[in-house]
Design a protein that fits this description.
The complex is a heterotrimer of chains A (about 210), B (about 190) and C (about 120). Chain B has about 190 residues and is mostly helical. Chain B has 9 helices and no strands. Helix content of chain C is about 30%, strand content about 30%. In chain C, strand 3, helix 2 and strand 4 form a beta-alpha-beta unit. The longest helix of chain C is centred in the last third of the chain and has 18 residues. Classes of the chains: A alpha+beta (about 210), B mainly alpha (about 190), C alpha+beta (about 120). Chains A and B meet through helix 1, helix 3, helix 4, helix 5 and strand 3 of A and helix 1, helix 2, helix 3, helix 4 and helix 6 of B.
C-alpha cells in the first residue's frame, strides 16, 4: 500500500461501527483516565480492545520520539552559538542601584545589583570547583542601612566535604561584600543544588 | 577560549545552576544552556514546522526571548520545559505568519511529501513508524498532536495557541490519533 | 557657564576619573538608574560620538555630574567610588563650579589581574 494514499480506516476498524458505537476520541480519553472507572461497554468490545491496544502502544512510544529526534540532531556549531550571543542585549542586568555610604550631602555613590551579583559569583575562584548559580539580595537594598540577606545557589564538585567548601565560599563572599558595598548583610545563605562528578579527562582535543 | 568550554565545569552543572547564572547576566552560562538544549529545541521545532528551512531561525528567536525572560523564571529547575514552551510558541508564530490567509479546509488535506528529518541514530521500527506517520499528517492535525503529546499542552492551551475552539482541537487530535495508529498498524 | 564649558568640564572629568586608582573603565552614564554595560562588552555609541561618557546636567540648584565606572576587585568599589567623588569635586572647584550633585555608580567589579598601569 502506497504511503501517500490516505489509509482506509474501515479496513482497520477505527470507525464507530467497529468500536461498538464508541469513538477513538472516547477511547483516548478513557485511556487518559487510566481506564477507570472501568467501562464494561468498552472493555467487553473486541473492537475497542484492539483500538485501545494500539493507542496504548502509541502512548508508550511517544515519549521516546523526542529523545530519538534529539539524538539525531548534531550539536550546534560554535558559530551558531555566537550568533545568538551577538543577538542578546548585553546589559549588565543592572538591577537595583545600591547606595554606598558617602560623607558629603551633595554626593550619591552606588553600585548596581548586577555588579554585586558578579562579584559574588567571582568569589567561586577562591574555592576551586565550586560554581555559583543564582544570587539574590533579599531586602530593600536601595535604602541605606536596611538589613539585607544574601542567598546563593551553588554547585560543588564531588569528593570534598561540603560544609568546608560552603564556609570558605561564605567567608570570601563576606569579604567581598565589605570591600565593595556598605550593605548591612545579616546573613549569607548558601544552598547546594548540585554535586558534580568530575568529568573524564578524555576530551582534551577535538 | 572557544574550545575551553568543553572542559568547563559549567557545561556539566545542573540546569538550575546554569540557568541561575544566565538569569543573573553570565553570558558564558547562557551559552552553555544554548549548547545543552539546541538539539532538543531543533528536534521539537522540526516536528511542528512543515519544512526544515526555518527551524534554526525559530530556535534562535526562542533563545533570544529566553535570555530576556530568564530573570522572571522562578523555578529554574524547570528551564528545560520552559524552553520547550517558548520554542513551540515561536514555531506557531512562524506558521501563523506564513499561513495568514489559508482556508481552514486547506489544513485538512493530506500533507505533501515531507523533506526527511535527519536519519535516525537508532533504527527502532516503532519510532520510525511513528515518525513517518507524523510526517504524513495534515498540518493542523500534526500541530495539535505534537503540542499535546510532546509539548504537554492542555486542550485549552492548544486552542489558545492555534486560535481555534477547544472542540476543534479535540476533533483534530482524535483524527490525528486515528490516522497515526492506522498507519502504524500497517507496519506491524 | 555655557554649553561648551559644560562639555569641557565633562571631558575633563572623564579624563580625571579614568586615572583614579582602582578605576578600570568609564561607561556611559545613562540616567539616575544607569543601565550601563559591563566591561568586556562594547561601549554603546548612542548619539554623538564626540560627547563625553560623563553626564553634566544643569539643574535648578546647580551643576550635577553623573559617572558610571568599572573598578578593580583588589581596589574595592567603596574606596574607589569615594576617590572618584573626591576627584570630581576637586575638578569642579578648579573649574570654578561648586557642584550641586556628584552621582557615581559602579557597574562592574573586575576580577581579572591588572597587568600594568592603565593609560
Amino acid at each position: 500500500m502506497s504511503e501517500h494514499d490516505a489509509p482506509d480506516p474501515r479496513s482497520l476498524g477505527m470507525e464507530p461501527e467497529d468500536l461498538d458505537g464508541h469513538t477513538i476520541e472516547e477511547l483516548a480519553d478513557y485511556l487518559d483516565r487510566g481506564r477507570s472507572p472501568a467501562d464494561p461497554s468498552i472493555e467487553q468490545s473486541a473492537g475497542c480492545r484492539i483500538a485501545l491496544d494500539a493507542l496504548e502502544r502509541l502512548r508508550v512510544l511517544t515519549p521516546e520520539l523526542l529523545a530519538a529526534d534529539t539524538a539525531a540532531e548534531p550539536p550546534p556549531e560554535e558559530s551558531w552559538v555566537q550568533d545568538i550571543l551577538a543577538g542578546i542585549a548585553l546589559d549588565a542586568r543592572a538591577g537595583r542601584r545600591i547606595p554606598i555610604a558617602a560623607p558629603a550631602p551633595n554626593t550619591d555613590l552606588g553600585i548596581t545589583e548586577g555588579a554585586v551579583r558578579g562579584l559574588i559569583r567571582a568569589a567561586e575562584h577562591t574555592v576551586p570547583g565550586v560554581l555559583v548559580g543564582r544570587c539574590r539580595l533579599d531586602g530593600d537594598v536601595t535604602v541605606p542601612g536596611e538589613p539585607v540577606r544574601v542567598r546563593v545557589d551553588v554547585s560543588v564538585p564531588y569528593g570534598e566535604p561540603i560544609p568546608d567548601l560552603v564556609q570558605r565560599l561564605r567567608e570570601e563572599i563576606s569579604r567581598r561584600l565589605t570591600a565593595h558595598t556598605t550593605l548591612d548583610v545579616t546573613g549569607i545563605d548558601i544552598t547546594v543544588h548540585d554535586v558534580r562528578r568530575q568529568s573524564s579527562p578524555a576530551e582534551e582535543d577535538r | 577560549m572557544t574550545r575551553d568550554h568543553h572542559r568547563s565545569p559549567l557545561e556539566s552543572a545542573d540546569d538550575r545552576i546554569v540557568a541561575g547564572r544566565a538569569a543573573d547576566g553570565d553570558t558564558a552560562a547562557f551559552a552553555a544552556l544554548v549548547r545543552r538544549y539546541t538539539p532538543m529545541m531543533r528536534a521539537y521545532a522540526r516536528r511542528i514546522l512543515p519544512g526544515t528551512a526555518e527551524v534554526d531561525d525559530v530556535v534562535q528567536e526562542a533563545f533570544i526571548t529566553a535570555w530576556d525572560q530568564l530573570p522572571a523564571l522562578d523555578d529554574l529547575g524547570r528551564v528545560k520545559s520552559w524552553l520547550m514552551r517558548i520554542t513551540s510558541r515561536k514555531a506557531i508564530d512562524r506558521i501563523r505568519a506564513t499561513r495568514a490567509h489559508a482556508d481552514v479546509t486547506e489544513l485538512e488535506l493530506p500533507a505533501p511529501e515531507q523533506t526527511a528529518p535527519p536519519r535516525r541514530a537508532e533504527a527502532r521500527a516503532g519510532i520510525a513508524a511513528l515518525s513517518d506517520a507524523l510526517q504524513q499528517l495534515p498540518d493542523a492535525q500534526r500541530e495539535c498532536w505534537v503540542l499535546r503529546e510532546i509539548g504537554d499542552y492542555s486542550y485549552e492551551e492548544i486552542a489558545d495557541e492555534l486560535d481555534i475552539p477547544v472542540s476543534t482541537v479535540r476533533g483534530l487530535l482524535a483524527r490525528a490519533r486515528r490516522d497515526i495508529i492506522v498507519r502504524m498498524e500497517q507496519w506491524r | 557657564m555655557t554649553e561648551s564649558a559644560d562639555r569641557e568640564l565633562a571631558a575633563d572629568i572623564e579624563a580625571a576619573v579614568r586615572v583614579v586608582p582602582g578605576v578600570t573603565a568609564v561607561f556611559r552614564a545613562g540616567g539616575l538608574l544607569s543601565k550601563a554595560l559591563v566591561a568586556g562588552a562594547q561601549l554603546l555609541g548612542i548619539g554623538d560620538e564626540e560627547a563625553s561618557l560623563v553626564r553634566v546636567v544643569r539643574a535648578p540648584d546647580g551643576i550635577r555630574v553623573e559617572v558610571a565606572i568599572g573598578v578593580h576587585s583588589a581596589a574595592g568599589a567603596v574606596a574607589t567610588a569615594h576617590r572618584v567623588q573626591a576627584a570630581i569635586d576637586a575638578l569642579g572647584a578648579a573649574h570654578g563650579a561648586s557642584l550641586a550633585g556628584v552621582h557615581v555608580t559602579v557597574v562592574h567589579v573586575d576580577d581579572t589581574v591588572e597587568r600594568g598601569a592603565s593609560p
